[in-house]
Amino acid sequence: MAPRFDAIVVGAGFGGMGAGIELDRLGLGDFVILERESDLGGTWHVNRYPGLAVDIASVTYSYSFEPNPHWSRLFAPGAELKRYAEHVADKYDLRGRMRFDTVVSGARWDAEQNQWVVSIEGGEPLTARYLLTATGFLSQPYTPPFPGIETFAGKIIHTTAWDQDYDLTGRKAAIIGTGATAVQLVPEVARVVEELTVFQRTPIWVVPKIDMPIPPVVQNLFDRVPLTQQAARLANTTALEALMVIGVLHFRQAKLLNRGAGLLAKAHLRTQVRDAETRRELTPHYDFGCKRPTFSNTYFKTFNEPHVHLETNSIERVEPDGIVTADGRTTEIDTLILATGFNLWDVNFPAIEIIGRDGVDLGKFWRDNRFQAYEGITVPKFPNFLSLNSPYSYSGLSYFTTIEAQMKHMGRLFGEMFRRDAEVFEVTERANTEFLDRVTEKLESSVFYDGQCSTARSYYFNQHGEAALLRPTSTLNAHREAVSFPLDDYVYDSA
Ligand code: NAP
To answer: Name one GO molecular function term (predicted).
Structure first.
């Protein structure tokens, strides 16, 4: 029996939509996009906390083939990203092929029928020739198991489940976490609450954010002369690329640039925070780039406000009316905001159970061996499977770079499948090992291994201490390889 669908895509964020657009282009339009949330947009649907905005300039953080001339700011607010996602879904006719509130519980390769069988909670399994997972990197929220948290009598909000109806005015609030989310959220919460205590375990590097509204005259220019927006995208992407490739990946050869970025962040802190002790506590003790750096003109300043407190003692337990720190003090609160991020390495790689050829479990394979994926997209023993959020797949600083490189990889791979009239592809062990060896060697001179990252607690590192998230090559290299990888890195089988 032929499978029901050409392809099943899991995830209706920008990654899943890019995959859908490419499947259509390849003539594999009979696909379905399964999404656990009630609407499309992934991160930009789930995250709605105050202050949410993109931290890569919008000319770059968008599909190159679908520019939006009407971004209101250099760094668009979250709601605009959500509207952009809706526009893309409608324009590329994806919405009708999305199924929301559909939780995929697992997928299994059926070698008899050469198809994937995808299980759905509370529903019938679906079958498809190809499976593509686009479940995101930062999609499994993490709540630390603070002792006593279940006894807290006030309101608990994780930043990924913001309660729009909860009024923060006059509250005594705590924010736990000082990652990129907290950097955006802290100034907004401070504006309305009576008292705010920010619990920091590891300080974050913050550099100034060069942000401003994009005047209508420029938006019109982008609209009428698309080349101008393309030029802006090229200039911005080049600057980001230099930062990433030179400052992070070639840390060993270009320590000065990395140090320069650190000095800029320290100068920013110096000019923004009046109290020397607070400045000391906010100063990172690991190299710039070990963790994703952030941009803000308002985060540091907030700590000058008399009702905002920085707490660096570790959290011992939560009680019904407050948080007790290791020094025995209780901070009384009625609102507990968890800006505690995501769990990548225990539950997100992969986000669902995936069983390939010979019963191999992808999650177990990655944990028992090393996290790996050829070109950050395919894995031996997993035929007809594209894992779009894989170890070593994230290329550059804008996720759209990764998405579009993977779309190109799909184009080349499926082109060869069609030429051979094949039904099944699988990456070879040899090609996978060579890729893993290559990225492992390249990472040696990166800030992750040559710098001082041991105290950063960065999610770039997995439980084995490997920085297995980012692809350690330029985005140009990622795009070049996506259109030129050796075709015999795969084996192809006909029906
Ligand atoms: P995150 O960077 O993982 O930060 C989580 C924070 O929670 C960290 O400060 C962490 O401290 C703290 N934390 C976790 N467990 C804790 C515990 N047991 N006790 C005390 N503190 C604890 O998560 P995020 O801020 O949500 O950001 C994740 C990523 O999302 C960013 O790096 C960025 O890539 C993306 N993001 C992007 C945007 C944007 O584009 N606009 C905005 C927000 C987020 P430690 O550091 O000590 O672990």
So the answer is: monooxygenase activity
